[in-house]
Amino acid sequence: MSAFPGSPRLVKGGIVLLDPASGALRRVISLQYNPDSLSRTVQVKAAGGDGSDRSQGLRLKGSPIETIKLEAVLDATDQLEFPDRNQNAVRFGVHPQLAVLEAMAHPSSAALLANDRLAASGTLEVLSVEASLALFVWSRSRIVPVRLTELSVTEEAFDPALNPIRAKVGLGLRVLSVDDLGFGHRGGVLFMNYLRAKESLAGKAAPGVLSALGLEGLPS
Description:
single chain, alpha+beta, 7-stranded antiparallel β-sheet, globular
């Protein structure tokens, strides 16, 4: 919250983890500080991309592959000024916050042990562990299912017990579309909501005019 009276409440970006079957909320990961920048890459899935079929030149095979990259900062310095109120920060620094993010890249220990027991009992096919459904939330207009594809951690400062008290975390996320999840999956429904929100925003953009491009009309 800003210290200036009457200033707007700062909304934070973050990640929400849901149970993929029930939709139950598992965890909310709120970024301590909003990144100054966020980069996105959209790779178009075009039909006939090799040019071999001219009838496919304007056709799209599906939703593009969209990736998101951002850098988050974790800092326990302010919390350490009030040790009585922040005992976990005193004992562990930012280890817990790092562990929450890293857990997105790992199957749970319980799931690994369960699969090991199945394999030991002679089960021919042990299914891959299904992770939580992750939603990247960046304002009300951008709530989209994602998969964590990349995680880098640079720990920059430590307490006397070598707990990290400041770190930079690089996150790479891949948007999951209906091509990945299907229309009936909870994540597929959320992707369609994301796509509709994007289309609604596009409709609010001011229309351009040919004269702005130095044209009076288009060649016939």
